[in-house]
Structure formats: C-alpha cells, structure tokens
Specification:
The strands form five sheets. This protein has an eight-stranded mixed β-sheet with strand order 1-10-11-12-15-9-8-4. Strands 7-13-14 form a three-stranded mixed β-sheet, with no helix packed on it. It is built from twelve helices and 17 strands.
Length: 425
C-alpha cells in the first residue's frame, strides 16, 4: 500500500510514476475524497468528545440529586447525529481504502516505462550451446528418458499437471535439496509454511484484491499459495521487530499452485507452465537503507545457482508494466532454451520497499529509540525447477540421446548421466 502522505504531498510524482505502469489513477479525485474523509473523521471525534462531556455532566447531576432531563434530551440528539456521522465516515473510509488498495507500488526511478518489450538486459553469462547433431526439445527428451509422465498426470488431475517419475523425480528432488542446502549454509532460516492461507495473507502480499480470482480457493475461505513469498511475508505480520535483528533471512520450499497453465503452444509445452510446480523461495525483511544491497545479494545467489548448473543465462531488469504490482523493482534470471531460441525465467528477484510492510503492519524499532518505521521486504526464487529441468536437458544433451547431469546434483542422488529408457506400459 502506498503512503497516503506521499500522495498528499507529491501527487504529480505519484501520478507520473503510476503512468509508467500504464495506470492512470485519478489522484485529484482521491485528494478530494481524502479531504472529505479527514473532515468526517474529525467531525466524529468532535461529536464523541461532546458526548463524553454531556455524559459526564449527567453523571455529576445525578450524583447531586439534580434533574438531568434537558441534558438527556441533548444526549439523545447527539447520539443520533453521531450515528449519522459514523455511517458517513464508514462509507468514506471504505472508498478511501478501496482506492489505496487498488494502487500498485511505485516503480523505482531507474525502472523504465512500458511492458516486457522494454525489459533491459543487464548481463549475459556464457554462450548458447552449439550442436553438431539434430538436437531434441525438452518434451521429447523427458519422454525418451522416462522422466516426466504427462499423460498420467493429466489423468490424475487434468490439463496442466504432470508426474515426475524415476530419475526425473530423483533429479527434481536433487535440485531442491541442492538449493535448500546452499541457502541454509549461507545463513537463511529454513521454513516449511502452510500451503493453505487466509485472505489477509493474500492482502498483505499485495495479491488481493486485484488477483483474488487467480488462486485456487477452498470452501472455507482459504486459498492455495501461488508462491511461498505469500506465506513468508506474513510471518511477521502485525509485529514490530528489533533493528538489531535485521535483516531476517528465510528460505522455504513449497509447491506453487496457480490457475494459469500452459497450452499446446511450443513455449508452454512440457513443464514450462502448469498449475503446480516446485520452487525454493528466498525472503528478507531489511532496513530501508539496506534493501538495495539485499536485492543484489539475492540476485547473486540466484545467478550463482544457475551458473553452477552450467547453464547459459542472462539477467534482465523488468520494465514497469512487467513488474508485479506489489514490487518496486524486479530482476529476472532467465535460462536459454535452444528449442525455443528464447530465454525462460527461473528466478524473479524483487524489492517491494515498504509496500507489503504497510499492508501487513510490519515495522522495526530503531536501536537508538525513536519512532518505529516500516521494514522493506524482498523476495527471490532460489530457484523454480519446472523450467530448469527443460534447460538442463536441452543444454546438456548429447548426440547419443543421453544427457549429462550437473555434477553438483549427484551428491543428492541424481545420476551422472540420463539414458534413454524403454517406454513404460
């Protein structure tokens, strides 16, 4: 949520920043509403004060054995006026909050306007693999190697689901184990959060109300988390943290559940896009002055993992419209998929500044005393596996149909070499 004081003091700055996202918010109309809201709040406070004064006068007269009929009549009239004023304040408060809830975060100054066509490549690592044979795509490789069973996944759960089998399941688990171990050794606390969350959790993360219809819901009002970030940002909801304890660093593993799924388009086939996939998520609660450095640390961690898998990749800084509404700046780490001749995102590294902390009431207490302030929240995929597997298969395939597995994964039970298998019955 944006700071309403910022909107009051710098309306043009806020409006121009939102336009980078193609959001044309009616800031002048909100300022009129804001003035009405503050006036109504003041009127209610004055009426409540008057009611307290009259109630005290009535009590004094009764204790003195004096009649208080006139004051009681005034009190009744005041109660009616107060009820009307409170109803008006409640209406204005709803409109005021609804406007603020609908506003996305302000993109950082160095985030360019526009959509994904304006994303900026920051750096490229390695070179695309060159094959002197007829290279296969990841879908064919998973079938021939017996790694992923799409047909039975669809039978079990419908379109957009798959089953990892045999060495495919072992490779998936090795990736997750490698990522978790790496982050834990770097000082991140391991968390296994619930997969079912409340509406308030989605609101704090900035996914609700705008994306409330894009999650899987249960009959009791819970929803399945679309990413572990949604749970981790809520770990300290409503708390005031000690500055000496910052930053707080967490790493979580969860499946991620999303209504969006792939299609028969080449760019969506296989495990590239589905309703359920696995991801290791990094999260930090940081002091405002440390959040830029924290984002670069998270980005370095994600890049290091991808580089350790021997994958050609690049880093892009997202344009404003391609950045999630809750985030001020996002870098994507993208791996090369030879069959597509394109890059696919495997990690988004984002800084929400104080946007999520405001929604969740997450502050920190300065060590020297003084007024508490909002923390900054940051998250990064560290990493998502459903696109890594296709990249590993396509970039490390050999002419004989085998695929070399990155050596860092063998200690976790992954084979050194994936070999074609007889088709399962």
């Amino acid at each position: 949520m944006l700071d309403v004081t910022l909107i009051r003091q710098y309306p043009d700055r806020v409006r121009d920043a939102l336009r980078k996202r193609a959001v044309d918010a009616d800031i002048p109309a909100f300022l009129v509403l804001d003035a009405e809201f503050r006036e109504a709040r003041g009127a209610v406070e004055r009426l409540r004060g008057e009611r307290r004064r009259i109630s005290a006068d009535i009590a004094v007269r009764r204790r003195a054995g004096e009649a208080a009929g006139g004051l009681q009549a005034d009190a009744k009239e005041l109660t009616d006026r107060l009820a009307d004023a409170e109803a008006e304040l409640a209406r204005l408060a709803r409109e005021h909050q609804a406007f603020l809830d609908a506003l996305p975060n302000l993109p950082d100054d160095d985030v360019v306007a526009g959509g994904k066509e304006n994303n900026q490549v920051v750096r490229v690592t390695g070179t695309p693999p060159a094959f002197d044979f007829d290279a296969k795509d990841h879908v064919r490789l998973t079938e021939e190697l017996g790694l992923v069973d799409h047909r039975r996944g669809t039978r079990l759960a419908g379109s957009g689901y798959w089953v990892y089998r045999g060495e495919g399941a072992a490779l998936e688990w090795a990736l997750l184990s490698h990522f978790l171990d790496t982050h834990r050794r770097a000082g991140y606390e391991f968390v296994l959060p619930p997969h079912l969350l409340t509406h308030e959790a989605g609101y704090t993360a900035g996914q609700f109300p705008k994306f409330a219809d894009e999650v899987f819901r249960t009959d009791d009002g819970h929803f399945l988390l679309p990413t572990a970030e949604t749970a981790l940002v809520n770990l300290h909801r409503g708390e005031t943290l000690d500055e000496d304890g910052l930053p707080l660093k967490y790493v979580a593993y969860t499946p991620c559940y999303r209504k969006e799924s792939g299609s028969h388009r080449t760019a969506d086939r296989g495990t590239l896009r589905g309703h359920q996939f696995n991801k290791v998520e990094l999260f930090q609660f940081a002091r405002p002055e440390d959040s830029d450095a924290a984002q670069h640390e998270l980005l370095a961690r994600a890049e290091e993992l991808v580089a350790g898998l021997g994958l050609h990749h690049r880093v892009t800084r997202l344009a404003a419209e391609d950045t999630s509404p809750a985030q001020a700046k996002t870098y994507d780490v993208e791996v090369w998929l030879p069959s597509l001749g394109a890059y696919a995102e495997v990690s988004s590294v984002s800084n929400a500044r104080e946007y999520q902390a405001r929604r969740g009431g997450i502050r920190y207490r300065p060590r020297g005393g003084g007024k508490s302030a909002y923390v900054h929240t940051l998250n990064a995929s560290g990493l998502a596996t459903s696109r890594l597997l296709p990249a590993i298969l396509e970039q490390h395939q050999r002419a004989d149909g085998t695929v070399e597995v990155p050596s860092v994964l063998t200690r976790w039970g992954a084979p050194e070499l994936l070999r074609p298998r007889v088709t399962r019955g």
